[in-house]
Amino acid sequence: MTAGPTSAPPGGSIDIGGLLTIDVASELRKLSQAQLQGPWQIPAEIVRRALRFGAAEVEVELGRGRARIVDDSAGVPIELLMWTGVLLDARRPNADRHQALTALESQGELALLAAAGLPPRSLRIRSRTGGAVHALEFDGSTVRITTVAEPGPNRLDIAIEGPGIDRKPATDWLADAARFATASIRIDGQPVAPGFGQAFAQASLRPPLRGRISVPSQGETAHAWLLQHGMVSGHVAIPDSPCFEAAVELGDDSNDASAARLRDMMQGHVAGLVDQGVLLMLRIAAQAAGLPEPARARIARLLLQAARKQLRHQEIMEAAVFRGIDAQGERLVDLTGLQAAITTDAAGGRTMLALYPTQRPEQFAVGDAMVLVADEVERSLLTDLLQVRMRTPESRDTKGGWGVTLHRWRESMGLAVSWTIDRIRHPTAPAVIDDDLLDDRERYALSTLRGHLAEDPQRTVESISMCAGAGPIRRSRGRPPVLLLPRRNPTVAACVAALAHDRGWAYPAYLALLDRFGAPPEALRRAWLARAGS
């Protein structure tokens, strides 16, 4: 038989103190540890508290199992020091410790809760404010709280020793969390590196948002770091947007929120943040004439991505950030000017004259019509946005004469020299890799390209294979000729990745890889244009 519940003895009582012991221990563990990834985060939380209460300068010293943080904040009021002392003193009644926990939690004092819940081997807090110094000293068993008169500026000095406060993880965590702080923060004498390291420009966010925003020189995905009192507490990616970086302050003076709560708060601000990112790109574009070419090309691509999403469309159409050349010379033009240069044939096909940056304009018959100068990436984005096909202007050597003959001879000699250099650098043909030894993405890319190659009437190769190395794309010497794609060539690797992500990128991949060996079939081009217009 199963025994029933044991009845309480006559006159017995429930041990309320025992229940509170369990509650205090579990709650303190939850509040002081569950919100942190480890004890090494405690110094960062103490710094966050300092910034919350107005610190302009923070000095942090870290060592093995210890940390010391000195700042010029408003400090810790005597009432909070007393509640912290109650939590630290295991000899105090459990009801008092539970009340202390509740008081610190209601004040958003995660740093003090984390310090008390470590538990520390020692803790010293010395807070000078209003002409007095309030101090707490804990040696692992005994708590001592004092107040003495001492004039001087605000100064808070917190020293803690305990397991898990190791120097390297604490330094790495704090340096990453504090990189967007506006206060001066030094770790072991060294200033924390700023958060936006590689940016064309940065600016303050406009209300109702607080923080800063920048346009990085690299990257494809927009990111927002969520700040609480100047310290990073979370991070979100914004995929459907041109690339920017932002540090957004979401902290509340009354309390601290979890990273999940901050992400929820951020959802309502995403559209406004993206708009401010595009505005910053337009500000940079207005100074495009003074930018180096890589920066100009970067901004042009980002604005094209924004235009595809219908973000600030009219302003982007008027941004003179694209390279163009005509009989008057080279200058920056806007999308409206490029649209005016598009011609339409009898079949309805739209064409734009274009050169690659590596091509010399003087070798082509450039007239009054605007000619775009752009690389593969910029061309692809413009093709998608304007639904147009790029065409190279006619070469000047079509008029004949001795000058043409000399030009052709020089061109053929240049190709011969290039071929010789290529053979010297790569004396033997790279080893062809069997399809069975390729990864799934590479096999899929080859299969896609081979399928379109069979429909290409202008091809000069009969097949396509992947080979070893990172050298140039070239045609094999044997018969039938085979196009060799070195798997570590940057263009090859980028096309493989693009096709694996979206097979609709077959048209630009074909253009990039078979530039001198064929032309995309008409059906493939029309499929790309139809996709761009959908």
Describe this structure in words.
With 534 residues, the chain is of the alpha+beta class. The chain folds into four domains: 21-191, Heat Shock Protein 90; 196-316, no CATH class; 320-402, no CATH class; 429-533. It is built from 17 helices and 22 strands. The chain starts with 15 loop residues before the first helix and ends with a helix. Residues 1-21 have low confidence and may be disordered.
Keywords for this structure?
six-stranded mixed sheet; 534 residues; 39% helix; alpha+beta; Heat Shock Protein 90; disordered N terminus; single chain; eight-stranded mixed sheet; 4 domains; 17 helices; 22 strands
Number of domains: 4
Q: Class of the largest domain, according to the CATH hierarchy?
A: Alpha Beta
Span between termini: 74 Å
SS elements, strand count: 22
Strands of the biggest beta sheet: in what spatial order? 5-4-3-6-2-1-7-8
The CATH architecture of the largest domain would be 2-Layer Sandwich
The residue-averaged pLDDT reads: 85
The gross shape turns out to be elongated
Q: CATH topology of the largest domain, what is it called?
A: Heat Shock Protein 90
What kind of sheet is the major sheet? Answer: 8 strands, mixed
CATH H level, superfamily name of the largest domain: Histidine kinase-like ATPase, C-terminal domain
Sequence stretches where pLDDT stays below 50 over 5 or more residues:
1-21
Provide the structure class.
alpha+beta
